[in-house]
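Need the bound structure for guanine, inputs here:
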Amino acid sequence: MAVILDGRKVSKEIEEEIKAEVSACTKNGHRPPHLVAVLVGEDGASETYVTAKMKACDEVGFKSSMIRYDATVTEEIILAEVDRLNKEEGVDGYIVQLPLPAHISVEKIIDRIDTTKDVDGFTPANFGKIDQEHHSLLPATPMGIIELLKRYVIKTKGKHCVVVGKSHIVGMPMSILLAGPGDATVTLCHIHTKNLAAHTRQADIIIVAVGKPGLITGNMVKEGAVIVDVGTTRVADSSKKSGFALKGDVDFASVEPKASHITPVPGGVGPMTIASLIMNTMIAYKKRMNL
Ligand code: GUN
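Answer from helper R.:
Posting the output first, comments after.
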């Protein structure tokens, strides 16, 4: 039986630590940290994520604001919003939730974000510093995964890590973090990789972030591997009140018996991403306030 890497529990612990820090700051007369989320369009999953991010802010004592635009908004308007948030003294960090509608250039938007407020760690300046040992604003999902592994005392040094998926949000920064500060040997697999199973079978640690439910099956995993599942695809499920269930990229039933540790979906990586965003906002706040 694999140990369940309980992101919900660990993220609660982190949020309690941050809550105590916020409380100490406000007792000393400082304003609380302020995180802003920009949400464009009506993507159901984005809506769920942003709502969860705002709820976590409330729980730790941050001020939070959500700015909504409908899907037809122009790129110029979003760029102007980014410029405004960059200048706004009372905003410590902000995120533009992805994906954006196809007519808006993600690169243009990200390039314009003030690096000191880039709590997603997506700007070229912050992304370019991922392999620095003490770099602070790391991309939230890879940062959350590293923190989860640390809290379960799973070492990456000298391990063979296979990352599946090379997105800007997860796979690419994850591979850099593991190979750089993590001292692991890393194989980065993606949609064009031939014979994925031949790679995953060699892995001590598999991190999969592609959005294909059940892609990784038991026969693709070696005995005792650590499995981190970043997938959260909505699949129709009439037994759920919402009408859908969240499915990971790992076929839990066949993989869990072979794994030493495994993240559940939901309740694994998702809450850790949110905890990392909260940590990054706290870092950005303390720098802004010279605390
Ligand atoms: N969409 C999916 N994950 C993320 C994330 O971590 N940050 C942002 N901004 N958008 C996302």
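Comments: The pocket of guanine is lined by residues 95-98, 120, 140-141, 169, 273 (CB under 6 Å). The chain has a mean pLDDT of 97.
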